[in-house]
């Protein structure tokens, strides 16, 4: 499988090779000279140290030449970096929402996905938002990365140069499942993309109730399983009327998770948190409607 | 360097003179700078070995993809612990607390530091901070899982015991500040007659530059972690965006300390190398003033580069290129030092016993760490490798390959002086082979993984990274073997018979003119200094 590239890939790689090239020469120079001196002037061969006069010109030389070299390296890397911040006006803008621990993508027409679909050779601007903690949006194949910080809207852009899927990682540590906060960017031809972009929402998988898709979209299922397996939060399986110890204003209290409690837990997740939970529950990216909350509670009641 | 005869051979050494108290109290309540140095050493090296074992567990977990020995939450706690212990309990206090305390007064011809009781208080603050850090593991919500950087808002939201851990860092910060204060005063006020600024050993110069960073930068860390503590307890909203706070404010404050802290770690290591090279090359150091001034230059410019830790955080493009430019500039004085050290070997009469072998490998490993700093400091490439294994490899080459190796060199170089005993060379040569080979096997694959896009602080990884992770894990076993051999024979050598000569290596600085081990107040009579250090040709002031 060929990994796709962006217009930045080769430029960044060239800067990398320039820096590594200069570094290897410097390292070799220092190391070879050092080893040569240790052998040549070892006490066995050279028992009496000779007086070496201080040499101002030599010191000026090895100050000036490295200074020029570092400025050269700085300049090439800076020129390449400038392109990364100069977004073309015709770029397709996609909203990226990072949350513990998955990515969501929102297109201008309201289409919402968990993978990033982009057309070949078209500039794509990503606006990065977080609903909980710091994340970092990283596509190694495209050589782009920018932190996703709550309360800010950072951006990055790229122009894909070849087709195919590439990995998206979270590069800023964000808790338990940081290593699993992954997705894919899928580069398609413009016509494929247009077809995909204009088709309606995908049919829910047969058998999966719509409410499950809603809960997946809201991110509930990242931490709360429906089959009893452990996660960052308590499992939904058998949650209705489960005896639960919660913290209210710092006091522990045992309650049954009835309908009223479940409603409060969805709408104000951190008012009454279950003791022993690894962390607070992040807020939902977009507020749920009253019908959605009813549907979720109805679903939870029957999840035995 | 010549001075009046200070033959204190008839006096009991600091190991025998315990002050008014005896036994363990004679140590933990001693105000003798040498005893305090040894107190620090026992704790600091103990913590180093603990954090090393935690590192081994992390590498073992990464031997195979998926769960191997621990769950994700445990792994996250392990790398947090590894970082917190290695940074705040081992490498920041490291050389100044162990060797600075022991040798700074002797090298400038003083009987002690300016404020001996404050010095003891600094050790107690360090010990109390360390106990608090240990308590934070077993109390509250359990082992912190934030990484050593305590980034908000995660550190505000996680249920683990962040408040006690940051309070421990706060307390240990005072230890660092007070030690810096003590060293600066000592260097200004207690130099022996004739010990002018440019006759001071370069180790003293490096401690002087370091002490200014400790005084000026550490309070910022103290305030920052205190604010995290208060925000956790009272929900003030300085950093939490949900309450109108700014996560980037935290990052700025944190790195305004934590970048200069890198120089708190590396400058004294450079000072150690500047001592060892002239001694074993029997040669005057090349470019004494260049090395001394480059320490000050690094300490100063090092304040202005913190933003390179935030190149992808969303700071303005202008500040990104300014921080990048300054980062490239700060590399120059480090390069100058490396050239000067290598030039010092020219036409010397070089011997390579274990301390010199470690010092020579410092040059190689530190150079790799420094040069890969260009890749990290350059904007275009940093965007790609920021927060990947490339960064992990880079700072381990600087911190472990640089500072850690310099600590091994210093332990061996000053061993005869500190304990009055010699060690056999062979076990330390063997340990060096394991350490050098193991180190590169462990960390070099991380450069490759990082360039291929492997993010750091990952419990799990994609199959394409497996081969590099496995090589790296094997390296961790080799490295740990070497370190264990080193410390087993270090402890064994402590039981060797006394009888180290006063000057086993032919050093020229003042510590080699006092008995091994030194008497309680170092000198019977304060020496008068008539020449600069490293005078291997008996030429006086040249």
What does this structure look like?
The complex is a heterodimer of chains A (304) and B (542). Chain A is of the alpha+beta class. Chain A has 3 domains: 7-85, Helix Hairpins; 92-198, Cupredoxins -  blue copper proteins (Immunoglobulin-like, Sandwich); 210-302, Cytochrome Bc1 Complex, Chain D, domain 2 (Orthogonal Bundle), CATH 1.10.760. Chain A has 7 helices and 13 strands. Chain A has helices at residues 7-40, 56-85, 190-198, 210-218, 220-223, 259-267, 290-302, and strands spanning 92-99, 102-106, 112-113, 116-119, 124-130, 135-139, 144-148, 154-158, 164-170, 183-188, 243-248, 251-256, 272-274. In chain A, the strands form 3 sheets. Chain A has a 5-stranded mixed β-sheet with strand order 3-2-1-5-8, with no helix packed on it. A 5-stranded mixed β-sheet of chain A has the order 4-10-9-6-7, with helices on one face. In chain A, strand 2 and strand 3 form a beta hairpin. The relative contact order of chain A is 0.11. The model of chain A has no long low-confidence stretch (mean pLDDT 87). With 542 residues, chain B is an all-alpha fold. Chain B has one domain: Cytochrome c oxidase-like, subunit I domain (Cytochrome C Oxidase, Chain A), CATH 1.20.210. Helices cover 64% and strands 0% of the residues of chain B. Chain B has helices at 25-28, 33-61, 72-91, 94-107, 116-138, 154-157, 162-189, 202-234, 247-281, 288-301, 317-344, 354-377, 379-385, 389-413, 415-419, 425-451, 466-493. In chain B, helix 2 packs antiparallel against helix 4 (94-107), helix 2 (33-61) runs antiparallel to helix 17 (466-493) and helix 9 (247-281) runs antiparallel to helix 12 (354-377). The longest helix of chain B is centred in the middle third of the chain and has 35 residues, at 247-281. Residues 1-9 of chain B have low confidence and may be disordered. The chains are: A alpha+beta (304), B mainly alpha (542). The interface between A and B is large, with 83 and 85 residues.
